[in-house]
Amino acid sequence: MKTAAALGIPATFNAASYFIDRHLPEGRGRKIAIECGDERVSYADLHERVNRFGSALRRNYGVAAGDRVALLLLDTPEFAYGFFGAVKIGAVPVPTNTLWKAPDYRYLLNDSAARVLVINEELLPEFSRIPRAELPFLEHVIVAGARTSSPEDSFAATLALGSPELTAEPCAHDQPAFWLYSSGSTGSPKGCVHLQHDMVICAELFGRGILGITESDRTFSVAKLFFAYGLGNALYFPLACGATTILWPGPPTPAHVYRIVERHRPSVFFSVPTGYGMLLAQDGDFDLSSIRVAVSAGEALPPALFERFKARFQLEIIDGIGSTEALHMFISNRAGAIRVGSSGRLVPGYEARILGDDGVTVAPGEMGNLWIAGESTCAGYWNQPEKTQDTFQDGWLRTGDKYSQDADGYFWYAGRSDDMLKVGGQWVSPVEVEHALMEHPAVRECGVVGREDGDELVKPAAFVVLRDTAAASGELAAELQRFVREKLADFKRPRWVEFIPELPKTPTGKIQRFKLRD
Fold it and tell me: Which of 123, 245, 290, 434 could form an SS bridge with 265, CB 3.0 to 4.6 Å?
């Protein structure tokens, strides 16, 4: 396991000094750090605006070290100013899901006790549904956008109030820097407390170490900045290397994504399996020749999707797995060493073990529960000691994923621990059945869950999204069952096949199997 000290991170360390301040003395002041539509932000601009926002938070809003600042922001340069401006004064930014609803925002703002909310004007209507009396900790709301009715709380006015000079707050490298809320499959979201050194560790081990990002690269992430995956892809990976990040505040529809790629010419592209599937579903000739590496995470990438994307665009997709708790990827394929269908091998600097339900390490090739250790892992869940104790044990993180590892060190995903099916006394991975179904040319997407038959025994049930919805029929359902039976053991064959227009998914593209079960 790579330690912070081994990566040259000193005991006293403020992340903003590394990601923002050092670029000017290293000669990157005029280089473009952020492109967002027609807007260009140089590293010198970024440095000044981070300083202005941070100093205004401290001097004009009374934000002190340790205070939480919620960021309900779209993917725009203001996100970078708000995030690193808060970090630089020792405050704790809390990126917030822009797709949530008012009750979710009320929960997060009260759970984090955020004193300041920075919000895009487009998101104000949903936030405004919360009576201010129900937000006892919130003191200030700063609005980013063209709103002029309250200039004293506009983002532009806040920048104008701040100073272009700001000395970074001295922090311990293992002091809290920011929180990310992990929306698990059950219960309320959990605040993952990440430390000052965590972003540097991920940037070095995965951004540089696996993807080889350099100063000449241009990154574009379909996953948004409020996700742990997107935060690395589109913010601290490129800033760690002096590269350029391309931001897009709108929805990542295929038309938008193709337009951005063709206009801004990214060299490193990040998406999720659903995103790649949507791109493939869009007919037309599109130029992706600027992309040297395409990355996927969020859910296991079906081999059929990998092959179709490679055939159409001559690009191999690097699949891997990370988590909000670990901040970014800890297992990944890499260019020139892709094993299709696997999550890849361990990212150097992390450790892994696969344990049975009895806590004993399973034999190679056997399925078990994946545990990870690495210094980018968060310090725990805010204000949830029982869940922290259950998830983090002796330096190890319980991922909640079922995995096996082959003799060559490649990890194979079998599903979430609570998604596994026991059929006829044998475990069945829904992911394995889904991958088999995805190889059929009629199938666009699918989700597999357990369903009881007439004898109250659990059997696999498949929900299928077709490429041509008009093709749905009983004959096709029977054909898909036979198709899977030819590829897998008979007990893994879906006993039911239902055609649906779309799968229920999380914002990161993960199938919400509990909704299919319901």
Answer: 290
Residue whose structure tokens are 């029982």: 386
Cβ–Cβ < 8 Å for 32, 244: yes
pLDDT per position as a tens digit, 61-76: 999 999 999 999 999 9
Q: What are phi and psi of 128, to 5 degrees?
A: -70, -10
* 231-282 pLDDT tens trace: 999 999 999 999 999 999 999 999 999 999 999 999 999 999 889 988 998 9
Question: To the nearest 10°, the Cα dihedral for 237, 412, 515, 471?
Answer: 100
Is 325 within 8 Å of 391 (Cβ atoms)?
A: yes
Within 13 A of 63's CA, how many CA atoms are on the CB side? 34
pTM above 0.90, yes or no: no
Closest CA to 420 of 464, 372, 458: 458
Q: Does residue 246 contact residue 238 with C-beta atoms inside 8 Å?
A: no
At 98-146, the pLDDT tens digits run: 988 898 899 999 999 999 999 999 999 999 999 999 999 999 999 998 7
* Burial 269-296, CB ≥16 within 10 A → b, else e: bbbbbbbbbbbbeeeeebebeebebbbb
* Domains along the sequence of the chain with CATH: 43-171 (3.40.50.980), 419-517 (3.30.300.30)
Return the closest-CA partner of residue 52 out of 167, 186, 181, 158. 158
